[in-house]
């Protein structure tokens, strides 16, 4: 006989843990996405300079983040990098939610590598003569990238960027491995105390599904909005 009791996990401190985990997951995702997108734009602009040493460094960065598992990258930042930092900096970070900070750094660096490749593909779809035309009109390199080329590259890259956003959102669950109290961590904690495994992870699954659908809906709206403006 099936004996389900969702009320057992949706009350008291368990409900508080779920709400706190949800906010932490969303905060980690939103902050990581903003940092990743900004870094990806900078990377694409730098790669367009066609300067060989810079290209080698960026290619190494992208290859590392695309070929090393995200969980390993989080461990490198949380367990490895602090050993290279002065104790004063490590102490400061640990006093200010170090688990969250290192997870944030690992996640946004990883996402930026993928996003930069998507934006780079979008930039390649823009006619190279536009760069020459913009420079002939007197725009600087930065103005050309900011006002002419990158907006078009972003418009072309909406679909793959939505996919990267979904991947980044789901990857926030990896942060539980270093003790960030996001949704998966909170669910695991509740399951340990209540032994309501199905109910706990069903609620967590619904949360991830709803947020993923929201990200896809926002991406679809933005895509439609761009198509309307192009007419």
Short descriptors:
single chain; mainly alpha; MetI-like fold
Overall outline: globular
Number of helices: 10
Overall pLDDT score: 92
- Give the beta-strand count: 0
CATH architecture assignment:
Orthogonal Bundle
Quick one: biggest sheet? none
CATH 4th-level superfamily = MetI-like
What's the number of structural domains? 1
Q: Assign the CATH topology.
A: MetI-like fold
Element-by-element helix/strand order: HHHHHHHHHH
Which value, in Å, is the CA radius of gyration?
A: 21 Å
State the name of the first-level CATH class: Mainly Alpha
Question: Low-confidence segments, ≥5 residues, pLDDT <50?
Answer: none
Helix percentage: over 70%
Which structural class do the helices and strands define? mainly alpha
How far apart are the termini?
59 Å
- The share of residues in extended strands comes to under 5%
Structural write-up:
- 79% of the residues lie in helices and 0% in strands.
- Helix 2 crosses helix 5 (98-124) and helix 6 (129-136) runs antiparallel to helix 7 (141-156).
- It is globular.
- The protein has a single domain, classed as MetI-like (MetI-like fold), CATH 1.10.3720.10.
- It is mainly α and 231 residues long.
